[in-house]
Backbone:
């Protein structure tokens, strides 16, 4: 399974959901409907990420906002906001417990591929600040 491809799909669906009221599963299905689309495992993992972010969105957004000085979550570029959401969900709430370094690296790579020239530094800064703020009361 390609976790990177699943993250890309999750990013695209979450970005779309920021602007349209559509069911996440339908949005993912439409995105994956092309012939030779991603495998069922990739789609399943993408849906897992999407649903996890949506279920934990208030907490995830709160964590992002706590370290994004001078940036309100709703004013962040949509791509950056959703990359950060996926990474924070994986770091803090996902039961799979991947290494934090891998999660940050993947988020930075997504930002390079889908964001602006500044996105990768912005995402790295947000996630790095969350790591530094890691305390027993607020574990990552």
Residues:
């Amino acid at each position: 399974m390609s976790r990177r491809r699943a993250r890309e799909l999750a990013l695209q669906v979450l970005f779309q959901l920021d602007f349209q009221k559509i069911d996440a599963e339908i949005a993912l299905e439409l995105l994956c409907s092309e012939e030779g689309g991603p495998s069922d495992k990739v789609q399943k993992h993408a849906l897992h990420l999407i649903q996890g972010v949506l279920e934990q969105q208030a907490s995830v957004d709160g964590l992002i906002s706590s370290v994004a000085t001078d940036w309100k979550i709703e004013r962040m570029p949509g791509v950056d906001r959703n990359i950060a959401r996926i990474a924070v969900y994986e770091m803090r709430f996902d039961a799979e417990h991947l290494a934090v370094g891998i999660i940050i690296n993947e988020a930075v790579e997504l930002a390079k591929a889908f964001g602006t020239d500044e996105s990768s530094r912005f995402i790295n800064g947000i996630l790095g600040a969350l790591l530094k703020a890691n305390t027993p009361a607020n574990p990552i």
